[in-house]
Amino acid sequence: MTHRTDEERQRRHALADAAYGHTTARVLPWTTEDAKPCLLLTDTRSGHVSRLADGVESLRLAAAADLLAHAQEILDDPSAPEAELRCAAALLCECLRDALEVAESRGSRLRPPPTTSTPEPAREHTDSGSPAC
Questions:
Q1: Segment Disordered: which positions (predicted)?
Q2: Is 64 a domain residue?
Q3: CA atoms within 13 A on the CB side of 130
Q4: Which domain holds residue 67?
């Protein structure tokens, strides 16, 4: 699992925003061999890669839910060894990172498309009823 920097997140969002006008850009739940984000440009959410990404995201969220339940059991045990607590904390961090990536990816797909036309700004009117210059 790679740790994303703010710069990488901004790059991912910029790539998604740049492609948004033509197709939907989806940040996939895996990276390239050199740890760069993978984007899928598609007009459909039902393609093979989209379904595969949905499955990976679902597995990551299910693993996080299972780990959360197990970690709670460890925390509830006052005699739990420190090594077990540290291991649970490390795994929780990894699962939280995965869940945040899923949330970012899904959130970017929920953004409304940018408007292509900008509305004309309202003009102020003077007491005489004619537009102010």
A1: 103-133
A2: yes
A3: 2
A4: 10-110
Residues 6 or more apart in contact with residue 11 via CB below 8 angstroms: 37
pTM: 0.60
CA distance linking residue 39 with residue 6, whole number of Å: 17
Q: How many domains are contained in the chain?
A: 1
Please list, residue by residue across 70-81, b when 16 or more beta carbons sit within 10 angstroms of its beta carbon and e when fewer do: ebeeeeeeeeee
Sequence-ordered list of residues with C-beta below 8 angstroms from that of 26, at least 6 positions apart, any chain: 16, 39, 40, 41, 42, 50, 53, 105, 108, 109
Residue 122 is assigned to a structural domain of this protein: no
Share of the chain above pLDDT 90, in %: 39
